[in-house]
Amino acid sequence: MANTLNIVQAINQALMEEMENDETVVVYGEDVGLEGGVFRATVDLQKKFGKERVFDSPLAESAIAGTAVGMAINGLKPVVEMQFSGFVYPAFNQIISHIARMRNRSRGRYNLPMVIRTPYGGGIRALEHHSESLEAVFAHIPGLKVVIPSTPYDAKGLLIAAIRDPDPVLFWEPKRIYRAFKQEVPEGAYEIPIGKAKILQEGDDITIVTWGAMVRDVQKAVDLIKDEGIRPEIIDLRTISPMDRDSFVESVKKTGRILVVHEAPKSFGTGAEIISIVNEKAFLYLEAPPTRLTGFDTTFPLPRGEKHYIPSPERIAKTIVDVVRY
Amino acid sequence: MRLEDYNPLEDRSFSILDPDGEIINEKDMPDFTDEELLYLYKTMLYTRIIDEKALSYQRQGRMLTYAPNTGQEAAQVGSAYAMKEEDWLVPAFRELGAWLVKGVPLKNIYLYWYGNEWGSYMPEGVRVLPISIPIASQLQHAAGIGMANNIKGEKSVAVGYVGDGGTSEGDFHEALNFAAVFKAPVVFFIQNNQYAISTPRSIQTMSKNLALKAVAYNMPGILVDGNDLFAVYVATKEAIERARNGEGPSLIEAYTYRLGAHTTSDDPTKYREDEEVEKWKNKDPILRFKKYLKKKGILTDEWEEKTIEELEKEVMETFESIENKSDTEIDDIFKYHYETMPPHLEEQLNEYKAFLEGGK
Fold this sequence. Notes:
The complex is a heterodimer.
Chain A: E1 2-5, H1 7-21, E2 25-29, H2 45-53, E3 54-56, H3 61-73, E4 77-81, H4 92-99, H5 102-105, E5 115-120, H6 135-139, E6 145-147, H7 152-164, E7 169-174, E8 183-186, E9 198-201, E10 206-210, H8 214-224, E11 232-236, E12 239-241, H9 245-255, E13 258-265, H10 270-282, E14 291-295, H11 306-309, H12 313-324
Parallel strand pairs in A: 2-3, 2-4, 4-5, 5-7, 6-7, 10-11, 10-13, 13-14
Antiparallel strand pairs in A: 1-8, 6-12, 9-11
Chain B: E1 13-14, H1 34-59, H2 73-81, E2 88-90, H3 96-102, H4 106-114, H5 138-152, E3 158-163, H6 170-181, E4 186-192, E5 195-196, E6 199-200, H7 201-204, E7 221-225, H8 229-244, E8 250-255, H9 274-281, H10 285-295, H11 301-322, H12 330-335, H13 343-356
Parallel strand pairs in B: 1-7, 2-3, 3-4, 4-8, 7-8
Antiparallel strand pairs in B: 5-6
Helix pairs in contact in B: 1-2, 1-3, 1-10, 1-11, 2-3, 2-8, 4-11, 5-6
C-alpha cells in the first residue's frame, strides 16, 4: 500500500509507525501534543499514543534537549521538536556539551538514541529568526549526525533511520517544501541509510551537490538550460554529517567540475567542506574552479528581501553554464 | 520529619548533629546501626584521604588538575547514602563522597582526574553519570531520567547535584520547572559551599537562601546544615521517598563550605580571609561525626588508626596502578563518537597511525 503524501505528512507517518513499532519512542516539544505542532508534523500522535508518550513541554529549548539526554540514558528514544531552527540556540550547550559527547565521554557506557527535529530554511515570508540554514554549525561538531531530507519518500525513510540510530541525529526539515509537492510513500517502516547521498540525475559535464529545499531549485535550473547541451549530474546530499564523500568525489572524477548550491551563508560552510574534499581527492580531475552558489554572508533578510538571498533557479542556471564554459 | 514542615522562606536550617558532636534534634535522628555509622565515618575519611593524596600527587607533578572536596564530605556521603542501588546519581564534578557510596571504584575516579576517559566508564549496574563540567546543565539530565521513569512506570529516583553558583544558570531553573511540571521523581541537591571559584554566594542571588527557589516551582525546598551528615541523610531520604511515591521533585540546599581550593589551579587566599576558613574548620563534618562516635563509644583510636592506614595504602596502590600506565590508546580517541566509525574518522585515524609508523 502506498499513499500520496507531502513531506509533513510523510514525517507524521514515520512518527506514527515508529511509535507503533517501538514503545520506547516518545515525542515532545512546544505545541507538539494537543495541537500537533505548528506545522502539524505531530498531528494525531497524542490522540493515538496518549499524553504519556506525546506531550507539550514548557517553553524551554535547553530543557527539551537536556531532558532528552536523561530519557535516552534511561532507556527511551526521545524524538523532540524545536519549533524553528532559529530557536535551537538556547539548547546549543546541551547539544554541543552533552548530546554530541556522551558516548565518547563515557567510553560507550551511555549512548543517546535521540532525534532533534526542527524546520529550517527561508522562503516562507516569516518573521526574524524563522529562516536561517545553519546546518554547518552543527555539522562542525564531532559526535552529531545532521540529516536533511528533500522529498516525502526520503523524509520518512531517513526519519525512521534516525529514530533507530543508536546515536543522536539532528533532523533538519526544509519547511519551504513541507507542502510543495506530493509523492508516493509506501506504508510500513523502511529506512534510508544515514550518510548516503542520492544521485538524482546522471550526467558527465558538471556535478551539482545540493540538499533540502535547494534540490528542487537546482532541478528547475537544469530544466531552464535543457537546450544548452549540458548534462549535469545532480546529487542530493541527504546527510550533511557524516558526509557521503564518495558520491561527489566519484562524480567529479567523471565530470571534472563541481558546483555546490546551498541556502546557508557561504563562508565556513558545507560547500567549503565539499570543495576541500574534492581538492584533496580529485584535484587532478578538475577542469574548472570548484564553485559555490549560496546564501550571502549576511543576516537572512526579512520577507521583503528574501528573494535576493536564496539563490534562484535563474542564478543557479547561469552559474552552471559559467562553470561548464569556464 | 516532613519536608513541608521546613518552609524555606523562614530561612530555618534543619540540623541534628551540632559541631560539638551533640544530637540537638533527637526526634529526627536516623536509626543507624553501629556498623552503618562506622561505614559512613570510614567513607568520609576515605573521601578526605583520596583528596589529600590527589593534592599531594598534583603538587609532585604526578596528577593533573583536581577539584578537592574537603569540608563537603557529609553533604556528599549523607545524600548518596539515602539513595538505593536503582537510583541515579547525576553529578557535577565535586561529589567524590557520593560516588564512593554509589559504588564508583576509586580507580575510575583517579583515572578521570589523571586524564583518561575510561574513568567515566562506570561499572555495569552503577547508575552514576559521568562528571559534567558545564555548570547546572546536568540537572536537565536528572529531570529527563525522572520523566522517563514516569513514562516507563519505574520507581527509581534521580538525584542531581549542583553548586551554589549553578543556581544562577538558566538550566537550573529549566530543570526544576520541567521536573515539577511533569512531577518527575528527582531530587535537586545544592552543595552550597559559599563560592563559585572566587565569586561569593552573596553575588549569585538576592534570595535569602537557595532552597527557597523551590517555592516558585511549587516543590518542597529545605535548607540543611550540610556539615551534618544525619541532617543531610534524613532530608535527602525524605525527598527521595517522596519522589519514589509519585509526589514529585524537591530541592535541598546543603549549607557547607569548601575548605580547599576550587581546583588545584586556584588560590583561595586571593578572595577569602583565613579567619573565615578557620571558623569553618571548627564545623568540619568529619570532626563532629568523630566526636559523636567517640561519645557513643562506637569509635576507638585503634579502629581509626588501622582504618586510616588501610585506606591510605589502598589509595596509594590504586594511584600507582594507573600512574604511567594510562595513556590514551589512539583508537579510543576515535572509536566512541558513533557506534560505527564513519569513513572520515577512519581515514584520519589511519593517516595518523601511518605517520606514527614512519609514513608507510
